From TrEMBL:
Coiled coil: none annotated. The keyword Membrane does not apply. Keywords: ATP-binding, Nucleotide-binding. PANTHER family: CELLULOSE BIOSYNTHESIS PROTEIN BCSQ-RELATED, SEPTUM SITE-DETERMINING PROTEIN MIND HOMOLOG, CHLOROPLASTIC-RELATED. This is Flagellum site-determining protein YlxH.
Length: 288
């Protein structure tokens, strides 16, 4: 039985042969705008002709459903526990975005057995092959369950605000990632900027510190202005990119999307796939 499961695990990466680029959106501190940035960036990708899946991994605080004013019927836990096919668990939102929430109990992910993980990975792999981009909206900081997802993603997008506390927390999160992973592609989004200058100077401070102390390179992805349209959108449960596509705020998100898309979907020759990396993290970290 054990041998069969191991074969199943070994096979999993081969199923993944498509193009989806995986982006993990994370932060040090909570409340910096990860969910709003993930959702609106995902919608901007769709406007640029991409097929996008948004996976909410923010346990307990997950709120993509709420931001969309809709209730997804299923969560990732249905795929993990009830072994529901992943594609059946997805919901569709505005502009045809596919999304799924993490649901409650995601924090017990690591207590899952090998069989459930094998099923999950196989399903995730199949689902990935239907999308161009998959965004993971992560929780604040990095829990044990989320770390493998972040470390396996093609790009890690770190959201911070220009506040020194937020920058410091972003630094700590990057340190945690750098200690656990290799060849990380880290991109920084500075949200809630009074001016673009403000955002770039915050990025420069963070980047200099990370280079000096962690010998890790960061890339600048973009800045997003402070704008009351964000909280309005949250209250109205309608993404600002849909309601106010021509606002300065939305224009900044389209620029951010452009810069992320420009980086391309092409993978480096020989670089391992998301599923490949995730399954080896999971194999190491758990499964009884
Ligand atoms: N660019 C912004 N301008 C103004 N307020 C913002 C902006 N981004 C986020 N906020 C505020 O921060 C709150 C938290 O945002 P959210 O995306 O839920 O953060 P996180 O997912 O990081 O916890 C929003 O409800 C909004 O009130
Ligand atoms: Mg959030």
């Amino acid at each position: 039985m054990r041998k069969r499961m191991e074969e199943h695990f070994a096979e999993t990466p081969a199923v993944y042969h498509k193009k989806a680029k995986t982006l993990a959106v994370m932060s040090g501190k909570g409340g910096v705008g990860k969910s709003n940035v993930s959702l609106n960036t995902a919608l901007a990708f769709i406007d640029k002709g991409k097929k996008v899946l948004l996976i909410d991994l923010d346990v307990g605080m997950g709120n993509i459903d709420i931001l969309l004013g809709r209730q997804g019927r299923y969560t990732i836990m249905d795929v993990l526990n009830q072994q529901m096919p992943f594609h059946r668990a997805l919901s569709t939102g505005p502009k045809g975005i596919s999304y799924i929430s993490g649901g409650t109990g995601l924090d017990t992910m690591f207590e899952l057995n090998r069989e459930k993980w094998a099923f999950f990975l196989k399903e995730l792999s199949a689902v990935l092959s239907h999308f161009d981009y998959v965004l993971f909206d992560m929780g604040a900081g990095l829990s044990k369950d989320q770390l493998p997802f972040a470390l396996s993603a093609d790009d890690i997008l770190i959201v911070t605000t220009p506040e020194p506390t937020s920058i410091m927390d972003a630094y700590s999160a990057i340190k945690h990632l750098a200690l656990n992973g290799r060849e990380l592609k880290l991109k920084v989004i500075v949200n809630r900027c009074i001016s673009q200058k403000d955002g770039i100077s915050a990025y420069t401070r963070l980047s200099n510190t990370v280079t000096a102390f962690l010998q890790q390179q960061l890339e600048y992805a973009g800045t997003i202005p402070e704008d009351s349209l964000v909280s309005k959108a949250v209250v109205e449960q309608q993404p600002f990119l849909i309601k106010h596509p021509r606002s300065k705020l939305s224009r900044a998100v389209y620029l951010l999307a452009d810069s992320l898309l420009e980086a391309g979907t092409a993978k480096k020759e020989g670089s391992r796939s998301f599923i490949d990396k995730l399954s080896s993290f999971l194999r190491r970290g758990n499964a009884t």
